[in-house]
Amino acid sequence: MKITPYLLLAIASTASSVNAFTPSQRNARSNSLTEIQSTVVPAPTRDVIRQQQPELGEADLYVNPPVRNPPVPGSIMKMLPKNTFDIDTPTSLFYFGIDLLAVVATMGFLDIVVTSANYHALPMWAQALCVAPLQVLTGFAMWCMWCIGHDAGHGTVSKSNKSINRIVGEIAHSAICLTPFVPWALSHRKHHLHHNHLDKDYSHQWFIREERDSLHPAIKASHFTRNLQLPILYFVYLFLGIPDGGHVFFYGRMWEGHSMKEKADAAISTMVSLATAGALWSTMGFSDFTVVCMVPWCVMGFWLFMVTYLQHHSEDGKLYTDETYTFERGAFETVDRNYGKWVNRMSHHMMDGHVIHHLFFTKVPHYRLEAATKALKEGMEEAGMGDMYKSIDTPDFTQEIVKQFNDNWFFIDEKQVVRE
């Protein structure tokens, strides 16, 4: 008889006792009979097995991998070209001059169009269509200028003369980009010191997705209206002080522990921004000021928010707590994004050189980022740590920010938080 795997299950029962030899029966022979009965049980079907198998959720399948330590800045410096940390003041001022010319040219041409008789003869919808491309172009030029002011805030326009950094920052940020330079530099520095820390990071708040039901009603309302906020989020950040504190009115956590002298110095930048906006409004009138200055400013703010958000959000990104945070771990959670060759260049490699920037934010000027990033990639590969460097091609950046912000907002999953 052929035994198949389906006949392996049996239940045996003993029907009679077994007669064993006792000392008094040592010489007696006794026949013992053991009767065994068996019952064949059919093998379970797939449906039965499936019903008995416990269902596994995503949390059951997720295994938190061990946290690896990235190389320290001293080791990374050895991977980079020797001139990476050379800050050349004339080169910095050259780029500042180019962007200043771009802003003056685009905004000036936009003003000429808006104040022309032909423009005012058009119906309102035609006026909007006529100036929209110029507003986008002017806003992008302002964004490029903002990147120069960003370098000034880190002291990488000039290494030898701090006054040059301050002057460039006040012109680029406070005046042209209506971003109070010193208050912004203060909060931005705190972002760099605590990048990807769950509680201490600046610029973006982090909310645990699994705790969304317990959030404050105002935060829930902000999440509900998130898709309407993209054009004005920079305004909310600067003027309303959400989430870090005000950059125009000085309140919130970013000002804790700062002296009145520091606040007075910051107030100079705020007055430059307010005076510039007031002078333009008074000269141009509210309508032209809005069309020529504020709509491009919103375009600039959109660029700034988009770039910053995508640099610090990725599917496999991690956040750290006090128990697990190190500066290097936070820096390597930054994502380099490739928006395209010319967009990267005109934006001074703010997007595709951001990992290097976060590792050495007071040491590497924007015109050294491209070569340093290439060397970092090669060095990490040679060290067997190439997977720790994050880089994503994002040519569809406008669609990507809309999708990511709609899907994720400022939520992160609990499994992305490294607590121990």
Automatic annotation (TrEMBL):
The keyword Signal applies. Pfam families: FA_desaturase (PF00487). The chain crosses the membrane at residues 93-114, 126-148, 232-252, 289-310. Keywords: Membrane, Signal, Transmembrane, Transmembrane helix. Residues 1-20 form the signal peptide. Residues 130-386 form the Fatty acid desaturase domain. InterPro entries: FA_desaturase_dom (IPR005804), Fatty_acid_desaturase (IPR012171). This is Fatty acid desaturase domain-containing protein. The lineage of its organism: Eukaryota, Sar, Stramenopiles, Ochrophyta, Bacillariophyta.
